[in-house]
Amino acid sequence: xxxxxxxxxxxxxxxxxxxxxxxxxxxxxxxxxxxxxxxxxxxxxxxxxxxxxxxxxxxxxxxxxxxxxxxxxxxxxxxxxxxxxxxxxxxxxxxxxxxxxxxxxxxxxxxxxxx
Length: 115
Fold this sequence. Notes:
This protein is mainly α.
């Protein structure tokens, strides 16, 4: 389990180093996850130890949201002050996502019926 956890952290570290070294705006953990994915595809899947470790981490995933929830409670006054722009951006982004998804599905369905 320790080796698998170290492996996960090393991929996250590699992602952080690439993001900071190249000045990318993509978060380091996202790059690390992409690197891990590429590694696992080339390797043919995760080993038993990595799979077990990841399952154990996923069982306790809700604990990772505690710091974010604490931050929200700490800055609740900022959210209250900016509630209108936040609500507007949420509504607009939701509408745009739904519209793009619907148009994409319509386009894909049209291409499938032509084939």
